[in-house]
Amino acid sequence: MTGAHGWQFSVEIHPPDWRFPSGHSWVAGWIYAGEHRFITDLRAWIDGRAFLGLPGLPKPGLDDKFLGRPGPPYAGFVFRLEPHRGAQLLRLEARDPAGCWTEFFRTAITVDDQAIPYAAPAALGGRLAELVPAVLRLHAQRPAAPWAVVADEIISSALAEPLNALPVPPFHGALEEPRDTGWLRYGRLSVTGWLAHRTAKIKRITALVDAVQESVLLHALPRDDIGGVFADLPGRDRSQFVGHVDLPANQSAPALLKVFAELENGEKHLAFAQRFNPKVIAGAAIALPTLSRTTFARALWALRGAAGRYGVPLGSGQELLRATQLAWQAFLAEAPPRARRSKPARPRRVGDTALHLPMRIIVATHNLNFEGAPWFIFELARFLAAQPGASVRVITPQDGPMNRVFTEAGMPVTVLDLAKAFRAKSEQEFHAALAAATKLNWDDVDLVIANTMVSFWAIHLAHAAGKPALLYVHESSPIRRFFEPIISAALFPVVEDAFRWAQRVVYTADSSRLVFDYLNDRSNAVLLPSWVDVARVDAFAAAHHKADLRRKHGLDPDAVLIVNIGSVCERKGQHIFIRAIELLKEELRITYPGKKIHFLMVGARAGVYLDALKQELILYGLDHAFFIPESGEIYDFYQLADVFACTSFEESFPRVLLESAAFRLPIITTNVNGIAEMLAADEAWIIPPGDRYQLGDAIKQSLVAHFAGDTRRADKARASVLRRFHEANSMPLHLAVAGEAVSSSRR
What we know:
Layout: E1 8-13, E2 19-20, E3 25-32, E4 41-46, E5 49-52, E6 54-57, H1 62-67, E7 76-81, E8 89-95, E9 101-108, E10 110-111, H2 128-141, H3 147-159, E11 171-177, E12 181-185, E13 188-197, E14 202-208, E15 215-221, E16 240-246, E17 255-263, E18 268-282, H4 293-309, H5 317-334, E19 360-365, H6 372-385, E20 391-396, H7 402-408, E21 413-415, H8 419-422, H9 427-437, E22 447-451, H10 456-465, E23 469-473, H11 479-483, H12 492-501, E24 504-507, H13 510-515, E25 525-527, H14 534-543, H15 546-552, E26 560-565, H16 574-591, E27 597-604, H17 608-619, E28 625-629, H18 634-640, E29 643-646, H19 655-662, E30 667-670, E31 685-687, H20 692-708, H21 712-725, H22 727-745
Parallel strand pairs: 2-10, 12-18, 19-20, 19-22, 20-21, 22-23, 23-24, 24-25, 26-27, 26-29, 27-28, 29-30, 30-31
Antiparallel strand pairs: 1-3, 3-7, 4-5, 4-8, 6-7, 8-9, 11-13, 12-13, 13-16, 14-15, 14-17, 15-16, 17-18
Helix pairs in contact: 2-3, 2-4, 2-5, 3-4, 10-12, 15-18, 16-20, 19-21
C-alpha cells in the first residue's frame, strides 16, 4: 500500500476485521519511506488516546529488497494497544527527520464491551513544570513555527503512552543505562547493561536511536554479580555490554533506544527497547530563550490552548496557579539571564603599568595531562617565571605527565586531595573541606592564577587569604550545565562567586566571554589574545624531516596523512571523524587508486570511549586509521601531517589550530565557539560539528588541494595567525594583567 509522501507500508498483524477484544492487542507491519529518506518514530491514535510504537525493527528479506542490503534503516514496526470501550477510530502517524507527524493509515474499529473505560488524561496543572520548558526549547529551535503548533506537538507527545521491551527467554538481561533519563555528552548516549542467552552464543550487540546510525557495543565483558540470581545461566560471568550511541540533534522526546543481539546463526533479535528523555550535560543543546516574563506567558497560554484541543483538563484554579509558579521557578533556574553585553577591559602593555616585583605566583590548574589547557598555562607560567624576581609554583588536584614538565622547568608541583571539597553538599561544607586540604603559606604569595573554570576553588583560597587572583576561562559551556555531573547544585553559586571575586577573569575568545557576561558585576572581564611560539615552531620544522618523524612513530612515510590531534574523548568528536572515514572508504579508493591515504588520531587515553572507537575501526574494516597515545612530543605530529582536522563539539580558543596554522598545515575544523575568531572561510575548511557528511566533503576538498599542490588556505591561515597571535605580541599583555593585579593589591 502507498500512503502519504509516497511511503509504502503494510499493516500485516491486527485483530480480525479490526474488532479489538478487551485487553492488549498487537498491531504490526512495515513502512518504507523511500531512498535516502526514513521514519524516525511512529504513534497510533485511538480516538483521543496516543500510543507510541516500536519502529525500525529488522524485516529480513524486505529490508534487502528496498535497500539492497540488510539495513538500517529497518522497515518493521509494532504497536501494543489497549483500546477503550466505545473507541471507533484508529489512526497511524509517522514522524520524519524534520519532526513533522503525518497520518498514513486510518480505519474504523470496534471494541469489546468488556474493555477498559475511557479515562481522561491527567490535568494540565500537574505537568506544567516539565511542559513549559519543552515548549520554550522547541520554539527556540523552530522560531518560525506558531506557538500553537509547537504547543500541540508537546501536548500530543506528552499524551502518548510509551512501549518498552525487555529480553524474552532464552535471552536474559537488564538495561541499566539509560532509564527514564538519558544523559548526552556531545551527541552521544551512554548505554550499559548485561545480556546472555541460554542456548546460543551472542556474536554482536548493537544499538541505535537514530534510524540509520547503528553502533556496535562492547560486549562479553566481565560481570560477577549475575550468578546470585541466575546461577545456571551460561555466559553470565561475561555478559556485560557498554558503549555509546549517536543521537540526532532533532530527536523527538521521549526518544527510543533499541538494543539488538545478533546470534552466531545470523538471527537478529530485539533485546531491549527503552523510551527516555534526552538531557544534554555537555555539548550543543537546544537552549531555553533568554529569561522573559512575556515569553513565559506566551508558552503558558499556548499550552492552555493545546490542552483544550486535545481534551486535557486544566485542573482547578488553585492547581493551575501553583503549577504556574513551579513552572516559572523552573524557567528562572534554567534560562540564561540577559547578558549585560559589557565591553571587556582593555589590555595594556607592560610599559603602561608599574610592576611591583617580585611576583611570587601560585598557578592552580585542573589537571596535569597532556592537554591544551595545561600546555597553555605552562607556557604562560614559564614566561612569568622568567621575569626578574618572579617565581612560580603549581598546585593541582589531579597529577599527570606534565608534573615532570613543570618540575624540570623549575616550577615545583604540589598535588592536593580535593575530593571531599568536590563532594560537598553545601557552601559551608565546601569551604571547610577546602581549608582542610590546602595548608599553604600565604606570606610568600603575591598572586594566584587559576587555570580553567574547574579551578574555581583556587579563587576562593586566594579570596580567603586576601590575595589577588586571575581566573583563566577556557570553557564555553554555562556553569550549571557544565558542573551538573561534577558537583552538587548547591555549589553552583560558589563557582559563580569565583568569577566575581577574581581581580580579572581572562578570556581568549569573546564567544566564551559572552557565555559568562552576566557574572561581570565588577567589570573584571578582560579579553586577551592567545599565542603561538612561532620561532620554536619554525626551528622545529627546520630541524625535523617529515619522513624521519613518521618512521620514529611507526607510520608510513609515503602515505597522505590526515591528523586529528586532541584528547580522545566525546568533546573532541573522534567518533564523527571515524564516521567520515567509513563514509569515504570506497570513494577514496576509487578516486585515488594506488594512493595511500591514512588517518591518525593523536591523544588516545584508556577508557570505554577509546575501546568503542577501536571496535568501530575493526567493524568497518578501517585498517588505514590509527590511534597514538597522548604525547608530550606533539610538535612531531604537526610536522609529519599533511592535513590537520579538528572535529570538536566545543572549544574556546584551541591552541592546536594556532599551532597547525604555524606549521603551514591545511586545516579542516568545526565552527564552534572561538574558532570563528581564529580562522576565516578562505583560511580553512570550516564545517558544523557532528556532521560526518560535511566533514567528508571537507576531507575530499583538502585532498584535491593537496594533490594539486594548492597551499593558498594554509598560507593565509599562517599569515593571519602570525599577525594576530604572535607570542611576542600576546605575552606582554598577559604579563601586564598579572602585574596590574599584584600592583593593585599593594596600594
